[in-house]
Amino acid sequence: MAEITVIGSINIDIVALTERYPSHSETLFGNSVKMLCGGKGANQAVACARLGKSVEIIGAIGLDPYGEVIEENFINNQVGTHFLKRVEQESTGCAIITVDASAENTMLVVKGANDSLTEQDIHHAFSQIESSKVLLVQMEIPEETVIRAMIEAKNKGMFILLDPAPAEGVTKQALRYADLITPNLQETKQLTGIEVTSIETAIEAAIYFDQSLGVKNSVIKMAEKGALIYECGTSKFIEAVKVKAVDTVGAGDSYAGALACALADEVDLEQAARFAAIVAAMKVSKLGAQTGLPTIAEVNEYCKENNLNYYGLRTC
């Protein structure tokens, strides 16, 4: 059975590259367009698989050509599809993404089949899951489905990693079942009301998560600045790995996937976060939420070339 179970959204991404975003009602000519596999759940599952872990995806796709492309992509990336639901009455989820010259992105998502994943589907899957160490879940599927997955995982003694994204889908109810959350700046503000602009305000937000929302462990992602690690009352800042960003789509998913892999190896949170920072840096330097994800061999080579260390590789 897989070391990591990922539950979440599965989409096809239509990605347009442009110098700048069009204003409201404005027409611009872009540079190029690509069709890529995406969705937060799918991205995180592929990230884990490329980093050498056995992983199962629990999610839903439509019975359409996009669904076929996605399923083939899972198989090619060695992601288990035993619990992949195929929905006849809904199309596969779709994200229309615009990436500008600064590598920032805007995104319009049509959930489609993702909203068809039910509590019954979760119960059926977990009745067959025995030895998975980590559950990785996000908020792009129905809230009741997310919570049911977290309860089932808790009953099996799994470590529950919640990526509380997107900000619009985050609810405080789901937080109480998580062992660790990984909000970005927008999600942190949505949940705490605190605008993180410094290490000090990140610590303030982490304390709020702990004392007001009952989340003892958090990693607050501060984009290109780095991340604030908070664990049972103590905090540490981890700097980002500096790279030239090409595409930030899927950066958070690569980070969450890398964290899940490290936690499955039972390393401490600081070491896990340092590994995740390397993986996320490599991801943003390439185009595509999944095509830009590095393999573990590529991570090792990158670390050797740039004199970087993580828990599984020492270059000094």
TrEMBL record:
Subcellular localization, as worded in the UniProt entry: Cytoplasm
Binding site residues for ATP: N184, G252, D253
GO MF entries: ATP binding; metal ion binding; ribokinase activity; tagatose-6-phosphate kinase activity
Subunit structure: Homodimer.
Cofactor-binding details, from the entry: Requires a divalent cation, most likely magnesium in vivo, as an electrophilic catalyst to aid phosphoryl group transfer. It is the chelate of the metal and the nucleotide that is the actual substrate.
Catalysis performed (reactions): D-tagatofuranose 6-phosphate + ATP = D-tagatofuranose 1,6-bisphosphate + ADP + H(+); D-ribose + ATP = D-ribose 5-phosphate + ADP + H(+)
Annotated catalytic residues: D253
GO CC annotation, single: cytosol
Chain residues that bind substrate: N11, I12, D13, G39, K40, G41, A42, N43, E140, D253
Organism in which the protein naturally occurs: Neobacillus vireti LMG 21834
Descriptive protein name: Ribokinase
Keyword field contains Kinase: yes
E.C. numbers: 2.7.1.15
Family that this chain belongs to: Belongs to the carbohydrate kinase PfkB family. LacC subfamily.
Pfam families per record: PfkB
Gene3D superfamilies registered for this protein in UniProt: 3.40.1190.20
Description of how activity is regulated: Activated by a monovalent cation that binds near, but not in, the active site. The most likely occupant of the site in vivo is potassium. Ion binding induces a conformational change that may alter substrate affinity.
Lineage, uppermost ranks: Bacteria, Bacillati, Bacillota, Bacilli, Bacillales
